[in-house]
């Protein structure tokens, strides 16, 4: 059995809300095609606007936080299905619903694409859990900003992007902005940071607009976005 | 074991796209609450704008018709989950993925909410299959028009709504407009009509804006929308 | 990953009712062995006499059409298991119960053998759905007549076999003989024709007595039975 | 929660091969209807002629004993489905595939109908396993002879039926006739006797032609067939 | 449908390691019997010494943290099975493996007993997730100390038990002692506190030696152990 | 598809109770690594002391034999998970719960590790069932004695180990010591012997302390322990 190192790519749900979503997915498909011979690849997709829409509806209907998170999870699974189908034979053609299910599908040797697993955690936590289970060498977080900033760039025009930072620095930065409500987890929630820390997973945060650059990021270690170093 | 007659309610996917979607669902919840003591209720939800969005993305990515339909099915399951969660203890808290799965969940005695089952057929076909399996006395199709018209009311300003019509008349009317492409099935596709015909299921087509009137439609046989009579 | 084009073989349930059924299956096994290196193969088996027996029993017990079809489906699954077991390591050793389940088992790279999926459709519809999902280049229908005739050969001694015909010609021919009752679907039901049409699947109808000729049909394009051309 | 004692009925596969099979099932349905208010009922069905047919086919195809038994199991599941569907709302509408699955479906409060579970054991062993798991007060074996004889009645015209016998006497009688090949298990195989012994399950062997008498057998302790007393 | 408020009982894995474990489980069974008519009950069991044993073995074999946690989860499932089986008909006879699976089994109306769900979180987090999903009025944590102390009582002889405290006070107390390694989560891990906080779940920490007092704790609001008040 | 002959290794549950359990598992891992290129390997693990502990608890709680066996089965699954996880990519990462499930996971091409399947039979019976299903050339029983003795070596200091014996000789020797109670099956129970006999499986009984010698036993036919010859 040949050995291929494993990587995990977490795709923001916002990726699917963009006007050129299918072009973006098409780029992702090319990246996966070019990497799949040398790497095993897990992909985790967020819920995006759809998650927010259904959580809002659920909140108006007075559902509890658990069911609101489940709606977000089901929205993320719709995105995951789209990616899995788009990857054709490269991918396992069904989306797992838990870490144990992921691990079983992963043993097929194919790319496995997943959405959320469980209430109480973001899809970033899913990505960290998956990366830990498959002993991934890298976890790439592709989102709608260029990397990790010293403050939330949405609210602070003067935020500065950090090319490299430690995990504890990241924790400090994010601590202020965390919310516990369904659908409002920021970038990396506490669960994902706990897993990243205990298993010393290398994290790279990058803009999904540069998704095509992922091939050189992985194959040639090209510096893109922010690299978070576990201590 | 007490006996409650069974009814099936097919909710258009467009129901979830309306601005007042949560109010609509709230009305549906009241209807189901008031009927659940005397009737067993199956609910089938369509995919709506979300289905169309993902099918469009999939088509741009050149997926085959089978996978396009699967994307529509997954979109309808998201809607089905929302209804199931909104119904709380009244409903079975998971969405079946096939007729056999539906039948198993139905045996719980709860309301069962489902989305699509299989490529090649609309959620109206799902509703007919479900109605047949549970020997439903009525299949209510709640959609975004007031009933069955003699021509497609979207294209013909002079279309006339029919308070009552036979299934063969309905077939004639729909025959012109049918398409076989994923996501474009009209009102009732050939599979649903075949099932309705062979099992002589009574169908009522009504506007989901009047969803609150469903209680009197069912309990008092109040005339709403169009009634389709199987021969 | 090497590429092998996909084909689907639909085996009539009558195949299992013949006196020399095991010899027939043995020939099928040889065909599959000789093709499996160059083609991915899906097999769909009908229910045959067993389906008819259980549907008859069910009808005497006044089961509804949905459960009658389910009995036919379970009969076809027994046949499918026999073929899957006979194929040994070449085949996935379990029979899927829906298109989604088929697709998942198909990703194993093995031959997948299936029976029916859902009430309201024949196993020919299953074969078409499977062929569409796996983008099969050919769907071979192996049945108890030599090909498509201009009339039902069972009833008309003067029926003439057609070596080649269009899908619309086939629709015309079959339209008269279609029944909607469980267990009585003819050759190709409306669902199968709809799928064949929309995905332009090439269909070949042949006698299962010539099953050994399938290798040259597939590998050398030898003309056997009738070829139905989608427009 | 009201308490209803549990009973298990093992129906010979030969029951489904009789000319008046649907009448027989109809009688069984009446028995179950009249008992279901006061008893919880598990039903196990054998494979009958169908099992033997498919095992014979499999043997001609040189399948191993494990797969031959699996074919017999699938045949018994077809019979089990027929009974389950015939019982309508009284029964759980799906057939379990293992003891653990049985136990889960049993918790629904419904009649559960099952066929075989595993190679290497007869459906009589399944019946004993089920009876043990649900702490059944009685296991009724309905077969094609009137009870237990002092020799195999098929081969010995002078065999005498025993109204009452101990389990060790039964073991002695059956020991001569046991075979280990798939599909040839007699009346009660060693696994079933082991379970019956360790859990001291009361067994009654009766002719399925008298199936209607089951109500008085259960409700009024009427003496029918042979009663086997565990020591 | 009658309404019964829901409660969750989290049983320490250490409960199963005690010499008088079966007596303890017997008391728990009595408590559940006396409460089940008026309350719906979810039970979560920890992994105890067994979890620690297998995690230690796994660590010696150099498994990653994800698989170590899975071993702990499987150990907790063994305990959960024991409780479920001991509760007989009161409980659902199978242990769920995720929150979604729990919710589905919960809809049976029975007591549902679960062990762990997912790597990266303790069974206390499972208990919180379950309590949130079923909108439980109370979450009782039965462990091997009498309640929450101002310091870890294992290490500090002078630790003082607090009859009542706020969630933020609890967070402060526990913050020092948290570890992220598999199998070493203390009392309540961050995930459980996050869920308790966002859904304002009332938590009671008590000694499992007093398990029999649970009936009066629930029915008569008797003060036992420590009560943690969400703000 | 390359052909690799199949072997089954049954590991005593006592293996996991030894002080040097992780070293033992490590040796097993080396053996499997060195064999996996040339052989397909099934592994069955017993329940050991853990099974006995939980069965004892269950017995004190008055569970029936079926549930006691299920507790033993769940204990054996914990051991099976540990082995499966320890084997990493070589093994299928989930433990099957029935023979049919085993067969499906086996088709992955990986090592499959299983615990118990069903009440009423030992994990030795599981091993025999698995060996039969996969047409294994050898079934190795690794236990806490050096081989088969002419009497139970635990009780008889003068017992003599037999390097070679027939299956009927083994049956004679074991007949005295068999018990039917849950958790007390000896070496090989009647079910396992029935399967071994009908499928003529070659059995080798050896001490798990020599587990490293398995490579030469398999590859070079080195004589270790006792060899049981089916007639
Ligand atoms: N210090 C920071 N650096 C970078 N981004 C930050 C920072 N603090 C907060 N953010 C926010 O995190 C957002 C990305 O996380 P968010 O959860 O919104 O998206 P996502 O997880 O990629 O998508 P989804 O949750 O829809 O799948 C950015 O848009 C940014 O506003
Ligand atoms: N124009 C036609 N040409 C060929 N066959 C036709 C035609 N019209 C009707 N038939 C009938 O179709 C039959 C084959 O379809 P049928 O559904 O009976 O078998 P099958 O699908 O192969 O088997 P099963 O349904 O048992 O799996 C033929 O036996 C023939 O009588
Ligand atoms: N001593 C005996 N008393 C009664 N029947 C016996 C005896 N010995 C052998 N038999 C045979 O057992 C048969 C019933 O067992 P058998 O396994 O054939 O049927 P079944 O289990 O009821 O059906 P199936 O296996 O098809 O489900 C009887 O037909 C009879 O010939
Ligand atoms: N402030 C505190 N008050 C009470 N207990 C504390 C405190 N800080 C730490 N602990 C420890 O928490 C332990 C209980 O948590 P622990 O996770 O060990 O057990 P559990 O979760 O009940 O069991 P298991 O994890 O085996 O299921 C106590 O034994 C105690 O030593
Ligand atoms: N004739 C015999 N030769 C060898 N061992 C025998 C014999 N008779 C009885 N035994 C007993 O069989 C035991 C092995 O079987 P046992 O079922 O106890 O262990 P196992 O099946 O390997 O483990 P577990 O059931 O825990 O998985 C030996 O310890 C021995 O005492
Ligand atoms: Co996010
Ligand atoms: Co529609
Ligand atoms: Co047909
Ligand atoms: Co039999
Ligand atoms: Co704990
Ligand atoms: Co043993
Ligand atoms: Mg029998
Ligand atoms: Mg703990």
From TrEMBL, chains A, B, C, D, E, F:
<feature type="binding site">
    <location>
        <position position="149"/>
    </location>
    <ligand>
        <name>ATP</name>
    </ligand>
</feature>
<protein>
    <recommendedName>
        <fullName>Uridylate kinase</fullName>
        <ecNumber>2.7.4.22</ecNumber>
    </recommendedName>
</protein>
<dbReference type="GO" id="GO:0044210">
    <property type="term" value="P:'de novo' CTP biosynthetic process"/>
</dbReference>
<keyword id="KW-0665">Pyrimidine biosynthesis</keyword>
<comment type="subunit">
    <text>Homohexamer.</text>
</comment>
<dbReference type="GO" id="GO:0005524">
    <property type="term" value="F:ATP binding"/>
</dbReference>
<feature type="binding site">
    <location>
        <position position="69"/>
    </location>
    <ligand>
        <name>UMP</name>
    </ligand>
</feature>
<feature type="binding site">
    <location>
        <position position="152"/>
    </location>
    <ligand>
        <name>ATP</name>
    </ligand>
</feature>
<keyword id="KW-0067">ATP-binding</keyword>
<comment type="function">
    <text>Catalyzes the reversible phosphorylation of UMP to UDP.</text>
</comment>
<feature type="binding site">
    <location>
        <position position="144"/>
    </location>
    <ligand>
        <name>ATP</name>
    </ligand>
</feature>
<feature type="domain" description="Aspartate/glutamate/uridylate kinase">
    <location>
        <begin position="7"/>
        <end position="207"/>
    </location>
</feature>
<dbReference type="Pfam" id="PF00696">
    <property type="entry name" value="AA_kinase"/>
</dbReference>
<dbReference type="GO" id="GO:0006225">
    <property type="term" value="P:UDP biosynthetic process"/>
</dbReference>
<keyword id="KW-0418">Kinase</keyword>
<dbReference type="GO" id="GO:0005737">
    <property type="term" value="C:cytoplasm"/>
</dbReference>
<dbReference type="InterPro" id="IPR011817">
    <property type="entry name" value="Uridylate_kinase"/>
</dbReference>
<dbReference type="InterPro" id="IPR011818">
    <property type="entry name" value="Uridylate_kinase_arch/spir"/>
</dbReference>
<keyword id="KW-0963">Cytoplasm</keyword>
<comment type="pathway">
    <text>Pyrimidine metabolism; CTP biosynthesis via de novo pathway; UDP from UMP (UMPK route): step 1/1.</text>
</comment>
<feature type="binding site">
    <location>
        <begin position="10"/>
        <end position="14"/>
    </location>
    <ligand>
        <name>ATP</name>
    </ligand>
</feature>
<dbReference type="InterPro" id="IPR001048">
    <property type="entry name" value="Asp/Glu/Uridylate_kinase"/>
</dbReference>
<feature type="binding site">
    <location>
        <position position="48"/>
    </location>
    <ligand>
        <name>ATP</name>
    </ligand>
</feature>
<dbReference type="InterPro" id="IPR036393">
    <property type="entry name" value="AceGlu_kinase-like_sf"/>
</dbReference>
<keyword id="KW-0808">Transferase</keyword>
<feature type="binding site">
    <location>
        <begin position="117"/>
        <end position="123"/>
    </location>
    <ligand>
        <name>UMP</name>
    </ligand>
</feature>
<feature type="binding site">
    <location>
        <position position="143"/>
    </location>
    <ligand>
        <name>ATP</name>
    </ligand>
</feature>
<comment type="similarity">
    <text>Belongs to the UMP kinase family.</text>
</comment>
<keyword id="KW-0547">Nucleotide-binding</keyword>
<feature type="binding site">
    <location>
        <position position="47"/>
    </location>
    <ligand>
        <name>UMP</name>
    </ligand>
</feature>
<feature type="binding site">
    <location>
        <position position="52"/>
    </location>
    <ligand>
        <name>ATP</name>
    </ligand>
</feature>
<dbReference type="GO" id="GO:0033862">
    <property type="term" value="F:UMP kinase activity"/>
</dbReference>
């Amino acid at each position: 059995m040949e050995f291929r190192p494993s990587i995990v790519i977490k795709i923001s749900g916002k990726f699917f809300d963009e006007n050129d979503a299918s072009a973006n997915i098409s780029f992702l498909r090319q990246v996966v095609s070019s990497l799949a011979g040398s790497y095993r690849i897990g992909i985790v997709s967020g819920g995006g606007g759809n998650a927010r829409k259904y959580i809002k509806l659920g909140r108006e209907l007075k559902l509890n936080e658990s069911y609101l998170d489940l709606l977000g999870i089901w929205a993320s699974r719709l995105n995951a299905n789209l990616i899995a189908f788009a990857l054709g034979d490269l991918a396992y053609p069904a989306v797992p619903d838990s870490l144990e299910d992921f691990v079983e599908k992963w043993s097929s040797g194919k790319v496995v694409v997943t959405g959320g697993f469980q209430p109480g955690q973001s899809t970033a936590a899913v990505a960290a859990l998956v990366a830990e289970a498959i002993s991934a060498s890298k976890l790439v977080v592709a989102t709608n900003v260029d990397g990790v900033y010293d403050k939330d760039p949405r609210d602070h025009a003067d935020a500065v992007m950090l090319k490299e930072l430690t995990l504890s620095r990241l924790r400090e930065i994010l601590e202020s902005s965390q919310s516990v409500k369904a659908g409002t987890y920021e970038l990396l929630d506490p669960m994902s940071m706990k897993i990243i820390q205990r298993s010393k997973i290398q994290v790279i945060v990058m803009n999904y607009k540069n998704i095509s650059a992922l091939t050189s990021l992985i194959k040639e270690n090209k510096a893109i976005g922010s690299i978070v170093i576990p201590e």
